Amino acid sequence: MPSLFVPNDFKRHMSVNMDTGLWQCFKTGKQGNFVKLYSIVEDIPYKKAQSKLLFQGLEDGTLDIWDSPTATKEAPEQSLFSINTENFAPVNIDSYDSNQAPVLNAWKFLMDRKLFNLTEYIEEPYYVCLDGKYKDRLIIPFKDYDDKMFFFQARALSHFAQPKYLNPNSENGAKSSNILYPFDYDADHLCICEGPLDAISLQLNGINATCTVGSSISRVQMQMLREFEGKIILAYDNDEAGKRGIERFNRMRKQLMLPTAYIVSPPSEHKDWNEAHIRGVNLNTWINNNLYEYSTDNVLLDRLKEI
Question: Which of 13, 93, 154, 173 could bridge across to 27 with cysteines, CB 3.0–4.6 Å?
Fold first, then answer.
């Protein structure tokens, strides 16, 4: 097709893969995913382009990046998702005086884990579900550029509730493997951890962070990271699952020609980033002092230490 970056391109220097959404201009060397192309065409920030695609959809529904496209020629503005928030009650720093037991339980959970932002008041940073499938679970929202919820994790507040985490059904929202916890695309670094509570803990310490909802990053998530220009830091847990996730990330990084990543783990005496945050560890200092560049030698050295 004619390149968007070359005037009067009768030689058609541009190619778009309709299966993956990846594109490249062979004349200028510019390339990226579909979200980046949309942001260029519409002249809007990348994050806003991602938001608009998530919530307005594509008329033809050809991209297999998000589940259940519902936009049609008759209803092009219909949302891709139908997350039902009817039973969600907001939980914020002032919820200590609520007369609803689930709200109080969620408030105590968040206070114990120091997950409220004490420097910036937010009306609805979290929710608790009062009825239905996610009843009595803390709702950790993933919100887009326009502060709309496009995904959530439902965390059990009781030790007896299993499983600990529930995600929305994919027919009603995005797959967990197709999204990242919202972060600042313009920062000079990005810590990638496993779950949203760890990402929030890092963000409360002034660290740009996201999560992959597990330790196995997907190709779609890697494509999103291609647009991030800062230093990428793998901050998975220091266990076998975390190490496998790091190796998977590095293999995909090479395939997609991303820059070398850096590795950091939570302090060994703490099970995760949130626990370190609760205990008052200076996470900025810890990350700066314990960051190392990923290499095969480092992985082999870690394995030798375990023998």
Answer: 13
- Dist. CA 270–CA 154, nearest whole Å: 23
How confident is the model over 185-206, as pLDDT tens digits?
889 999 999 999 999 999 999 9
- Of 175, 208, 238, which residue is a domain's last? 175
- In this structure, the answer to whether residues 302 and 184 fall within a common structural domain is yes
The pTM assigned to this predicted structure is 0.75
- Inform me whether the pLDDT recorded for 183 exceeds 70: yes
Report yes or no on 13 lying in a domain: no
Instruction: Please tell me the total count of domains within the chain.
Output: 2
**CATH code of residue 250:** 3.40.1360.10
> Per residue in 223-276, pLDDT tens?
888 888 899 999 999 888 988 999 999 999 988 888 889 999 999 999 999 999
